[in-house]
Specification:
The protein is of the alpha/beta class. The protein contains 23 helices and 22 strands. The strands form four sheets. Strands 15-22-21-16-20-17-19-18 form an eight-stranded mixed β-sheet. Strands 2, 3, 5, 6, 7, 8 and 11 form a seven-stranded antiparallel β-sheet that branches. Strand 6 and strand 7 form a beta hairpin.
Length: 837
């Protein structure tokens, strides 16, 4: 990294705000590219897993058909016009009883009773499977055998019978399960459970295979091929499990609210089996709908037939009596007066027959309403069937029939439950019944009055008939009774014919628009391309997520981005790690022309910019914690200036953990501490090195009060004296993460170098230390990244430093930053308080 001007050095690199987002994105991309091999490996593995899944997953197919369901009642040939009935005479008989709305039909189509009835007509209790080299697939009527099972005998359910058909036609049957359930189809319950059940047998086709747990016969069919692979499986299913499965997999949807076309969609493992189910489902639904429509018509026919049986006997008696009277009295005709009386009485009798028929219907209706049990109600015979054209009565009965039909369509809810829908329908039915009962009572009262009036008029004519001659009078009465019975009989025959015609003309309120067929050209599951896309995304996302998480949970400085995210102070140098130079602090003095020394030449150049070319600069080197390479870098920075033939002094002010005495092999214990306490002069504490331009002033003995010594005025006098003598002063100070020694002398320091060790310095500690540096306004702050390890995972520092040289150091600190304890490992003398005084 280059330092372009002094302002950038002192203030850090804030960067261009407009480019921050693009820079961050580039950093993230570069971070991912450094780990490209992990992405490649993850993508290959993920796509491999996706391939295996697609290869071995059982395909699921989607089959659909559409059906038109009528919402409104259709008209019939018996619909009335201006001269006919205002309502269809058979409305309510079942002819046009399509009262359910489209949403009710959607529920009915997927209801348990309809699906159960559908399965009753299909042989789905036995499932057949073909065993292949890759996967096992379900078959339907595509196997060379059929299982004939005994419905009265228990069977093992949800367990696979393995069947191998030999070329000779023999059957090898086996079953090996850890646990089995024995199910009784007659009692519809599991009767026994067993563990570790095994069975194996070879039989001829047609042989009954029976035990206490199962009983069936296997027959071969025309699809048997001795040269083909004949490995199969079959299993028994319970009715309840099949109903539950098809209810869950069947969807009935409304294409458009503006239409009444329903789409039936079924997902299953076998297309032909699903097509058969949907075909049978629509057939059963239409048959159920037709049966409900014929229900009223059947009751009407039964009602009229019972009336015909009663009147037929009376008609036969009247006819026989009239024939006998004519034969006995030789009467062929009657007088004009008698004919007039007979005609008038016949008209009155017709009115009476009509009124009595209607009156019977009213009483039937009242008895029906008074039953008072909403759970057992059936639809009501329509008034129009009896020739009654009362608009209010017709309307009320129509409402009642609609409500009863709605209630009966709630097949998934018990009729005696407290479900809100049932309670609402019961309340509505009760309201309509009350209105209907009030209306019927009024009609019956009116009907009784009309009949009484009609009977009075008939009695008047009877009196006139009694005044006729005896023979003629008797004949008139006989003929009158015969014609009355004959007209009643004819009327009922007409109504019976109309009811039978209406029943015969009934058709379901639905029709199939599209036959069941598979959607698309293949299975809908597994979604091959989507699985591969998910695999690709996981292959890219998992390594990215792991890298981001590792970066998030890592609390050490591992990249230049980590430092730039913490501070804007510039990085002025990168020092690389090599094992070849391990344990040598004086790298620059020992091998001044080595590539590893180039790092310190670059640091030396940037220090000239930081100090603005100031004469006799004072350069302090510090760090966050011990063992970050602070002393190592102090020695080599001082050595790099000495190589320029500049008089350089290395001043050790790390009074707690000084190592320079041992590093340079000094015999004397004299140092800065001796100078401060007045027991030595500058010349006595200054020592020469093997390089003539580099001098060293060690810390001296360990004082009991290092913090107070660094604030002593004699230290300032020493710095001033050194400025006059030396061209460059390099100070090795204590880590600022532990003590604040550096901040006591910040006015006399021209450049402050902060050492950060790669993969060692904690980010939060570094941030806190640099915040203190900013708070105390230290001048010329620059960062040195130390001990950078090059490799596949460690080349993200100092993009320009591509060589593979550096250093390694193996020193450690023997002393902490608390009270010193002599452990016998250091050669430094420890001063007592009296010596300091």
């Amino acid at each position: 990294m280059e330092i372009k001007n002094n302002n950038q050095v002192n203030n850090g690199y804030a960067g261009n705000k407009e480019d921050e987002d693009s820079i961050d994105l580039k950093k993230i991309i570069f971070k991912f590219l450094r780990h490209w091999y992990w992405f490649v490996l993850a993508v290959v593995l993920a796509l491999g897993v996706a391939y295996v899944y697609n290869r071995y997953a059982v395909p699921v197919y989607e089959i659909s058909s559409s059906m038109l369901v009528e919402e409104e009642n259709k008209s019939t040939p018996f619909g009335g016009g201006a001269a006919g009935m205002s309502q269809n005479i058979f409305e309510g008989l079942g002819g046009m009883n399509s009262m359910q709305n489209i949403f009710n039909q959607m529920i009915i189509l997927s209801s348990t009773p309809i699906i159960s009835r559908t399965l009753d007509e299909l042989d789905f209790e036995v499932s057949y499977y073909a065993v292949g080299r890759v996967a096992t697939s379900e078959r339907y009527k595509e196997v060379p055998f059929v299982v004939i099972w005994d419905e009265q005998h228990p069977q093992i359910i949800n367990a696979d019978f393995n069947l191998t058909i030999e070329p000779t036609g023999k059957l090898q049957l086996s079953l090996d399960e850890e646990e089995i359930s024995v199910f009784s189809y007659s009692e519809e319950e599991i009767t026994e459970k067993k563990s570790s059940y095994a069975f194996s047998k070879t039989v001829e086709p047609g042989t009954k295979i029976s035990s206490a747990e199962f009983s069936f016969t296997i027959l071969l069919n025309e699809q048997f091929n001795a040269n083909a692979t004949n490995d199969y499986k079959f299993r028994f299913n319970t009715k309840s499990a099949l109903v539950k499965n098809y209810r869950n997999n069947l969807q009935v949807t409304l294409n458009d609210e503006a239409t009444s076309i329903l789409t039936l969609t079924l997902r299953d493992y076998n297309v032909k089996k699903s097509v058969a189910f949907l075909n049978k489902l629509t057939e059963v639904y239409q048959l159920d709908n037709l049966e409900k429509k014929n229900e009223n018509a059947n009751r009407t026919v039964q009602f009229i037939t019972s009336q015909l049986e009663n009147i037929s006997d009376s008609l036969n008696v009247s006819e026989t009596r009239m024939e006998s009277f004519q034969s006995e009295h030789q009467v062929l005709d009657i007088s004009m007066q008698s004919q007039q009386l007979l005609e008038q009485m016949r008209e009155l009798d017709q009115e009476k027959v009509a009124l009595e028929t209607q009156n019977k219907y009213y009483h039937y209706l009242r008895d029906y309403i008074r039953k008072g049990n909403n759970q057992e109600l059936e639809t009501v015979i329509a008034p129009s069937a009896m020739g009654i054209q009362d608009p209010l009565l017709n309307s009320l009965i129509l409402q009642l029939n609609e409500l009863i039909t709605q209630k009966s369509s709630q097949t998934s809810i018990r009729s005696d439950s407290q479900h809100p829908t049932i309670l609402r329908l019961n309340a509505q039915i009760e309201t309509v019944k009350n209105s209907l009962l009030e209306n019927v009572n009024n009609i019956i009262s009116q009907s009784d009055m009309a009949l009484e009036n009609l009977n009075l008029r008939i009695r008047r004519f009877d009196a006139e008939v009694r005044r006729l001659p005896a023979t003629e009078r008797n004949y008139v009465n006989i003929e009158r009774k015969y014609k009355l019975n004959n007209e009643i009989y004819t009327f009922l025959l007409q109504k019976l014919s109309e009811a039978q015609i209406a029943k015969a003309s009934n058709i379901p309120d639905s029709q199939v628009i599209e036959e069941p067929q598979m959607n698309g050209t293949g299975p809908v599951e597994p979604k091959t391309m989507m699985i591969y896309a998910i695999g690709l995304l996981l292959g890219l996302g998992l390594p990215a997520g792991i890298i981001m998480l590792a970066d998030f949970f890592n609390n050490k400085v591992v990249s230049q981005d980590d430092i730039e995210a913490i501070t804007s102070y510039p990085i002025i140098g990168h020092v690389f790690h090599t094992e070849s130079e391990k344990n040598k602090r004086t790298l620059v003095l020992d091998k001044p022309n080595s590539p590893a020394s180039e790092s310190y030449r670059a640091i030396r150049t940037k220090l000239n910019l930081i100090t603005k070319g100031k004469a006799n600069p004072v350069i302090a080197v510090t760090s966050t914690f011990p063992k970050e390479g602070k002393s190592y870098n102090s020695v080599n920075i001082a050595s790099s200036f000495a190589l320029l033939h500049k008089k350089t002094v290395l001043l050790d002010l790390d009074l707690r953990n000084s190592k320079l005495k041992e590093e340079f092999g000094l015999k004397s214990d004299m140092g800065v501490v001796n100078y401060i306490i007045g027991k030595a002069g500058r010349e006595e504490i200054t020592f020469s090195t093997r390089h003539p331009w580099l001098k060293i002033i060690p810390a001296g003995p360990i004082p009991p009060n290092p913090g107070e010594m660094l604030t002593d005025s004699k230290l300032l006098d020493l710095l001033a004296e050194l400025r006059e003598i030396y061209d460059v002063i390099v100070i090795d100070t204590a880590p600022v993460g532990y003590v604040a020694d550096l901040f006591h002398m910040h006015d006399f320091v021209d450049a402050n170098l902060f050492v950060v060790r790669h993969k060692f310095t904690p980010k939060m500690a570094l941030k806190t230390a640099l915040e203190e540096v900013t708070k105390h306004e230290l001048r010329g702050v620059g960062l040195i990244v130390n001990d950078i390890k090059l490799g596949k995972k460690n080349y993200n520092f100092g993009g320009g430093y591509g060589y593979g040289y550096g250093y390694g150091y193996g020193y450690g600190y023997g002393y902490g930053y608390g009270n010193y304890k002599d452990d016998g490992k250091s050669s430094r003398k420890v001063l007592n308080p009296d010596e300091v005084k």
